[in-house]
Amino acid sequence: MTCEPPGRDPEPAARAAGGPAGTGLPPVVELARAAYAYADGPPVLSGVTFAVHPGRSLALLGRNGSGKTTLLRLLSGGLRPSAGELRLDGRPVGGGRAELTRLRTSVQLVLQDPDDQLFAASVGQDVSFGPLNLGLPPEEVDRRVAESLAALEIAALRDRPTHLLSYGQRKRAAIAGAVAMRPRVLLLDEPTAGLDPRGRERLLAVLDRLRATGTTVVMATHDVDLALRWADEAALLTPRGPRTGPAAGMLADPALLSAAGLGPTWGHAAARVLRAHGLLDGGVTGPSFPRTPEELLAWAGGAGGGDTGARHHGDAGDTAGTRGAGDTGGAEDSGDAAGGAEGTGGAGDARGSGGA
């Protein structure tokens, strides 16, 4: 993937590599003109500038093999760019132990396959790995483990062996290990892959609550419908580089979707049909069109009244099927693991002690 040289932007709805326009907030973590190639392979990323600004939910979209996982691993320090640099709070991140520890206390990556990340005998031991590596006192480690397990609704699984967990439980345990590091930015590689609908809804509700407590969440996915309903911002990986902007507008651009190897969203297609029949006013970039079948049914039941833009899974008490902190995350979370994306790595990639 290469970035186009400066010049007139033929895609005014998209911005190269930036964060939310008009926020005035500097990025937490960013890549500047970064490049990376795996051994004996062509460049995966070249000349890429990409920034993650605080307080947003960002969907990173692209076809399989487009470099989503590589980009996340560069942002988390699991890979080092062969050119360009990684910055945290505007300062370059070096390759030394102290620099990587500084990065990993702010940015955490959860890999697509939880089995690439879970390695301890029990859930509690696995979640405690990162805080222990920071040298925190035992009482602080215990507090972080308890709070992280509660946040992911798996407190009752603390002493359960990790090999006895369902797939959905392993997903949430892996995320809990990252959350225990108290990151400002949480990077998730295809977090809903392999989950059934109920498990996916529960996970999205958890992510909404994490964001409500101040965590910026970046989700890599090729699911445009998920991105439309969940994300504030969308970054599409095209051959010209990442194109970033408000999710509803970015995902309404057929040319941009095609360049990223993606198809149209269900919500935008439904909105076009409704408008063609005179049943919906306005455009498709605002909040007032149904983004999911559930929202369409609610809209139809209310004769189109009310704001359908609220995310279906957004509140703890909604129909997402969430349960209390003592929930053991039953079999409804299980699913077949999806195949790994490019550049998978082990647990040290995300929660390591910061070694070079």
UniProtKB/TrEMBL annotation:
Residues 1-22, 300-356 are annotated as: Disordered. InterPro entries: AAA+_ATPase, ABC_transporter-like_ATP-bd, ABC_transporter-like_CS, ABC_transpr_CbiO/EcfA_su, Co_trans_ATP-bd, ECF_ABC_transporter_ATP-bd, P-loop_NTPase. Keywords: ATP-binding, Cell membrane, Membrane, Nucleotide-binding, Translocase, Transport. The keyword ATP-binding applies. Residues 337-356 have a biased composition (Gly residues). It is found in: Cell membrane. Pfam families: ABC_tran (PF00005). Residues 29-264 form the ABC transporter domain. Residues 1-12 have a biased composition (Basic and acidic residues). Gene3D superfamilies: P-loop containing nucleotide triphosphate hydrolases. GO terms for molecular function: ATP binding. Residues 13-22 have a biased composition (Low complexity). The keyword Phosphoprotein does not apply. It is a peripheral membrane protein. Belongs to the ABC transporter superfamily. Part of an ABC transporter complex. Responsible for energy coupling to the transport system. This is ABC transporter ATP-binding protein. The lineage of its organism: Bacteria, Bacillati, Actinomycetota, Actinomycetes, Kitasatosporales.
